[in-house]
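Good morning,

Both structures are done.
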Amino acid sequence: MKSSLTEYKEMLDTIVSSDDASIKEYYGVANKEMDQAADSRKQFYAFVKQVQADCSKLLDNPNLPPEMMIEMSEIFGVDKSGISRHLKKYLKQVN
């Protein structure tokens, strides 16, 4: 009886240690993905801030001809509502 219980306990120990390793591996992968997502978000935010600064420079220029403003709005992908299609796409992904 004692040897059967010992064997059973060893099997349970093996299962638990195997699951512990699997859990550690899973969380390792999940944490890496989360870190990459955070980096991607930081890069996107930095890009948005740069575009925002560029737009501010353009808008602060009182001598900017209307044709140039139209061209810049096309470059930035702004539609008739005034919202960038790129920003709309990002907001859909976030929400």
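Second structure follows.
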Amino acid sequence: MGIRQQKADIEIRALNNLFHSYKLASTGFYENIELLGINVQDSILIWIAPDSGNTFIGELLNQEKKLIRFDIDCDELFLSEIEFIEAQKKNSPLNKAALMLFDSINSIT
């Protein structure tokens, strides 16, 4: 594994420690992402960034191992969106690290 991939692996694990402990964003973020059908504990967050207002954008692997781009409004569910992303986007170091983490977590259960 190259240095770039090792850094991505460390970053993904740290990010998901916060994500899975519900410490990464507001309660509204978690409530709305779950109402859109994403199981937080069985998903792997790839990246997240604040957008305008109380909104977050990012990408994750959902519980079905599907790559999803999201735009979550923490205040208004009807303003939140998720979009499935084509497979060719899975080749970045962060996406590879997310896939490895997903596989390691799901091989335990």
